[in-house]
Fold this sequence. Notes:
Radius of gyration: 21 Å
Largest sheet: 4 strands, mixed
Mean pLDDT: 92
CATH topology of the largest domain: Methylamine Dehydrogenase, Chain H
Strand order of the largest sheet: 2-10-9-6
CATH architecture of the largest domain: 7 Propeller
Strand content: over 45%
Distance between the termini: 38 Å
Number of helices: 3
Amino acid sequence: MLSLNACLLNPIVQQVLCTEKNNDSRDSLLFWLFLANQNYYVELNRNWAGIKKGQTLQLSAQYFVFGQNTSTSFQWSSSDVSVATVDQTGLVQGISNGKVSIIASTLDGRASAVSAVSVYSGYVYTTLNFIDSVGHLTMDEASGVLTSNGTASVLPGSDPNGIVTDPGGKYLFTGDFGSGNISHFLINQSTGALTANGNTIAGANPRNLVVTPNGKYVYLASEGTQSIRAFSINGDGTLTFINSFSTSIGHSQIQISRNGNFIFYLSQNLTEVVSYRINYNDGNLTLVGTSPTFANDGSGSIATHPNGIYLYVGSYPSITILRFDSRSGNLSFVDSVLHSKTINGSAIHPNGRFYYTVDINNFSISGYSVDPNNGRISLFQTLTGFVGSSLRFIIIEPAGRYAYVADNSGNIKHLNINESTGELTLVGTVNPGSAQWNLTFL
């Protein structure tokens, strides 16, 4: 029997049943292979997890044959042993920052299952645009409370807005809106401290940035030049400019697909999302898809579902849900949910069940439950009481327990997440050195 999470767990199901299909012979073959293998399947105790670098996680597996739990041993493996290793009891060891697939395979070769594991350091970095700096904070593993470790200047940059780290946690980059450059920092692997590592000219008013999963390329939303600008990451953590792709729109938000093969941006008239395919040979972009039109006042925070299938566009006055074909880059309409709030930032819980929006002009944070069968959402919470704040962006730590919100008029907000219901509870605030524009978790 096909479980509700099949689209998240089984690559054949995801490719055949959970994407836009062309009904070609390849899809038919995959479909029949999928049906033939439904009598043999593996269930894991954790389909996803976040573990701190240096710590361990115990995974376990069960094998079902024709619906009956069958006693067997498993062959455990890691897709990248430099990120995490696993022994033959299913004990996972976090080695370095990054994402890895831990695979449990039956000895008869008939079935396997994958747990998506993120290894993290427990650092939060935030752009402090009023004082031209980046704040560095450390998360307490037990409570989620952040402790400020000081700041690092973006000299000779000014007004840092966007912020991103490479997947391996070695380098940090900021889009410096005032000075028109990207600042580079080296990250101390033991302490998380930042060391300035130069800068790269980025054109007028650079904003937010994304990095490809392999740490090879950086893409920048260049508001002043109305373009997406592409850079390669060099071995020393500096950047080399590749090309500029005109968007005919100056926008601050940019997103990358979960598989790392596409960039998402708003169209020229702000009422569609467009997708660009990344050429991994040279970093260039090709526009390949345009979504159906939706109402929008100019905002557009895009969040991607962990299964890679759904996009959530937080615009005004509605949240638009799109279905994404990860092979072609095409986008199709799923649903629209009226909220009448101005969304600046958004995030989806690692378990894929909860979607959160930061409502900048309404002084609130909203939580929505996500239907795993169709991607549709329903509101379950609006957290208010932030009057006078300028809430900007939200991040969720990879283990899914805590959320942090940047406030450009105050302190970082720390919230606990109920992992069963998704409900947020404000725990406290922390001063990282100044008001914040954006933030990222490493």
